[in-house]
Design brief:
The chain has helices at 3-40, 50-55, 72-80, 82-85, 100-110, 125-129, 137-153, 177-195, 203-206, 226-244; strands at 66-70, 90-94, 118-122, 157-161, 198-200. It is an alpha/beta fold and 245 residues long.
C-alpha cells in the first residue's frame, strides 16, 4: 500500500469513528431529552399523591372525612401544625406552587375519589403570582367554580376560603396582590353565597390593614406562621362543625 492509499484508509476510519461517535451522542440526547419531556408532562402532579390515594381505605359510614385542596399554604399547614391533622379524618392534598388550573386537573383523583364529606379549597395566590402564566382573577374564579360544582355533583360539601392577604410576592415582586386579592375574595364570596356554599373569611382575621398579613402571622408575607395557622384552625373548626351539625 503506497503512502497516498494509506492516508486515505486512515481518514476513512477516522470519518467512520466520528460518525459512530456523533450517532451515539445523538441517540443519548434524543432519549435523554424525550425522557425529560415525558417526565415534564405531569403538569398537574397527578402522581404526587397517587400511592397515598390508592392506599387510603374508603371512609367509614360515621367518618367525617375532610379533604384540604390547595398550594404551599395548605401543604405547609401539615408541616407546621401536624397536631391539627392527627387523629382526625383530615386529608391534606396541598402541593407547593400550584395554581387553580392544576388543582382542577387533579381534583377528581385527589378529592372526589377519596369520598369526603367536606372539601376545603384554599387557592388563588399562585394564580395572581403568575406561576403557570398570566391569569385574570376571572379565570381563577372559573376554576374555583368548576371544583365547587364537581364537589356538589358528588355530594361533597364545599368550603371556599378567601385568599390570604399579601402585599407583595417575594418571588414575583412586580405583581400587585394587595389590589387583586380583595377583588378576587369578593367574587368568591358572592359566588359561594349564590350557590349556598360556605365561604370562610381568613383574609379579615389576618389582614394588617393594608391588605398584607400581620407580621406575627407570617414569616415571608405570604405563608403563615404557626400562630397564623392557629387563627385559621379556629375559624375552620367552627365552619366544619356548622356543616356537620
Amino acid at each position: 500500500m503506497n503512502s497516498l492509499n494509506f492516508r486515505i484508509f486512515i481518514e476513512t476510519i477516522q470519518t467512520k469513528s466520528l460518525n459512530v461517535m456523533f450517532l451515539r451522542i445523538f441517540i443519548f440526547l434524543f432519549f435523554h431529552v424525550n425522557c425529560e419531556f415525558v417526565k415534564a408532562q405531569d403538569w398537574a402532579a397527578l402522581n404526587h399523591f397517587k400511592a397515598q390515594n390508592e392506599a387510603l381505605l374508603p371512609p367509614q359510614f360515621s367518618e367525617d372525612r375532610v379533604v384540604f385542596m390547595g398550594n404551599s399554604i395548605t401543604a405547609g399547614w401539615l408541616n407546621a401544625r401536624p397536631e391539627f391533622f392527627q387523629n382526625k379524618p383530615f386529608i391534606n392534598r396541598g402541593i407547593s406552587g400550584q395554581t387553580t388550573p392544576q388543582m382542577l386537573v387533579r381534583f377528581r383523583s385527589d378529592v372526589i375519589h377519596l369520598r369526603p364529606k367536606i372539601v376545603v379549597i384554599l387557592a388563588g395566590t399562585n394564580d395572581i403570582a403568575g406561576n403557570t402564566g398570566p391569569m385574570t382573577i376571572e379565570m381563577t374564579l372559573a376554576h374555583l367554580k368548576s371544583m365547587s360544582e364537581l364537589s356538589h355533583a358528588n355530594g361533597i360539601k364545599v368550603v371556599l376560603c378567601s385568599v390570604l392577604p399579601a402585599e407583595k410576592f417575594p418571588w414575583n415582586p412586580e405583581k400587585q396582590p394587595n389590589m387583586k386579592i380583595p377583588k378576587l375574595n369578593q367574587m368568591i364570596q358572592e359566588y359561594a353565597k349564590s350557590k349556598g356554599f360556605e365561604y370562610l373569611d381568613y383574609f379579615s382575621e389576618l389582614n394588617n390593614g393594608t391588605n398584607g398579613m400581620k407580621t406575627e402571622y407570617t414569616y415571608d408575607g405570604v405563608h403563615p406562621t404557626v400562630e397564623g395557622y392557629k387563627v385559621m384552625e379556629k375559624l375552620l373548626t367552627k365552619k366544619i362543625n356548622k356543616i356537620l351539625n
